[in-house]
Amino acid sequence: MRTASVVARYLAGVIFLVFGLNGFLNFIPLPPPGGVAGQFMGVLYVSHYLWVIFAFQVIAGVLLLVNRYVPLAVAVLAPIIVNILTFHVSMARSGLPLALFVAVLWGLIFVDVRQAFAGLFQSRLDRSSNRSRDLTNVPVRAS
How far apart are CA 86 and CA 142, in angstroms? Predict the structure, then answer.
């Protein structure tokens, strides 16, 4: 499973780096989608919202490729992948296979770093730990 995660990390890193850079440099000319998908992409393009998305894709792709801060890259890519999947399911089904492939790659990477997200999957917050936020126990610094 470790090998699959490493391969998935490199593939996802390359995909997000290439498509993120393509958003800025346009070295892979893609025809604009038609219909509602085209209108939606037009609004995102005119508002420069896509620049933010492309920047996050480039940053996360680089983090995956250099194997640093991988949980951060996974967290950054999660909402991007959800939006890519939603876009392709609801507006442009032609790109759905690649979107599903990227989602599977993300899942393989997530399984490998899931321990970093353990705190998010707690049903209740344990307030009995030593790290309580009780401000009455804060030591006073002597001058």
Answer: 56
The residues near 82 (Cβ < 8 Å, ≥ 6 apart) are none
Structure tokens at 38: 């085209």
Conformational region of residue 28, where left means phi above 0, alpha means psi within -120 to 50, and beta covers everything else: beta
Q: What is the pTM of this model?
A: 0.84
**124 — alpha (psi -120 to 50), left (phi > 0) or beta?**
beta
- The answer to whether the CB of 99 falls within 8 A of the CB of 92 is no
Q: Nearest 5°: phi and psi at 47?
A: -80, -5
Task: Give me the long-range contacts of 92-98 (CB less than 8 A, separation at least 24).
Answer: 92/33, 92/37
Residue by residue, pLDDT tens for the chain (143 residues) are 799 999 999 999 999 999 999 999 999 998 889 999 999 999 999 999 999 999 999 999 999 999 999 999 999 999 999 999 999 999 999 999 999 999 999 999 999 999 999 989 888 877 776 555 555 565 556 55
The Cα angle at residue 1 between residues 99 and 115, in degrees rounded to 5? 85
